[in-house]
Amino acid sequence: MIDANALRAACLDFNGAVEEFPFPRHPDVSTFKVGGKIFALTTLTDAPLTVSLKCDPELAERLRATHPEVVPGYHLNKRHWNTVSLTGALPDQLILDMIEDSYDLVVASLPRAQRLLLDWPGERRP
């Protein structure tokens, strides 16, 4: 089961990923960013632990239909974000894949120069 420490480690394992606490009114909300853009949002002290992740809209709908632990993003664009409950009901690998997909979606939206600096597998040097 992915706990708060494992979630933080998984998010920070990506090239260029940083953790920030940008909400003064909610100082316990962690955001994980790449290139200044959020790819994961969580409160690591919450029980149950949840994480909001960017997702392709069609995949987001399929995940919600298949897994009750996946719901539209809380206080986010519900078409592009899912909030995932990390209660142990979902396989760890599925959660890790959703985190990676979120990171990849954000990196893909960055300028090419930034993608190259990140040595992102989706961006190969000529």
TrEMBL record:
Alphabetized UniProt keyword annotations: DNA-binding
Molecular function terms from GO: DNA binding
PANTHER family from the UniProt entry: CYTOPLASMIC PROTEIN, CYTOPLASMIC PROTEIN-RELATED
Name of this chain's protein: MmcQ/YjbR family DNA-binding protein
The organism's place on the tree of life at top rank: Bacteria
InterPro entries, per database record: YjbR, YjbR-like_sf, YjbR/MT2646/Rv2570-like
Organism: Streptomyces platensis
Pfam families: YjbR (PF04237)
